Amino acid sequence: MSDRRPLRFVIVGVLNTAVDFVLLFLLTALGMPVFFANIISTSVAFGFSFFANRSFTFRSGGDARVQIVKFTIVTLVSLWLLQPAVIWAVSAIIGNLFSDEVVLLIGKACATVVSMTWNYLLYARFVFPPAADHTEVME
Q1: Angle, nearest 10°, between helix axes 100-122 and 64-77?
Q2: In this structure, are residues 76 and 58 in contact, taking their beta carbons and an 8 Å threshold?
Q3: Are 127 and 5 in contact, with CB atoms under 8 Å apart?
Q4: What angle in degrees, to the nearest 10, is found between the helix axes of 83-94 and 100-122?
Q5: Cα separation of 65 and 46, whole Å?
Q6: What's the CA angle centered on 28, arms 27 and 34, to 5 degrees?
């Protein structure tokens, strides 16, 4: 038996990204300015991510009001602190070896791995922890 939460987390991440991209491009194709379309698409994707991770990835039955606050904190730290720090660090380390675009691509890829790992670990332990009175079901 194995824990399928990491696989479910990746599935939710792919779907979440698809929701964001499809909605962003649909809204801009309908004439909405990119700034507003992006706010809407990322907000919908954020909501989808919360509910999908809560119900599908971690199968949590905890207090959703507390979880959404924790989810928001973990996610925003990941997006607004970790990712820029990793991008900066990569740029400082390899900035002279490649073009700015390649450095940014490598930095963003590294930042995505770091933030996904951060998110998974904190979602599993802090946002959607297993209930204390039962053993987590391994699939």
Answers
A1: 150
A2: no
A3: no
A4: 140
A5: 15
A6: 110
**Residue 45, burial from CB neighbour count under 10 angstroms (0-12, 13-18, 19+):** buried
Extract the tokens encoding 27.
């809204």
Q: Which two tokens stand for residue 31?
A: 């004439």
Q: What is the SS3 assignment for 12?
A: helix
pLDDT tens digits for range 27-36: 999 999 999 9
Residues 53-84 pLDDT 10s: 999 999 999 999 999 999 999 999 999 999 99
Cut 0.90: pTM above it: no
The span from the CA of 83 to the CA of 10, in Å, is 18
Helices 34-52 and 64-77 pack at an angle, to 10 degrees, of 130
Rg from Cα positions in the chain: 17
Q: What is the DSSP letter of 95?
A: T
Place of tokens 């928001």: 72
Query: What residue spans define the domains of the chain?
Result: 1-59, 62-130
Is residue 4 classed as helix, strand or coil in its secondary structure? coil
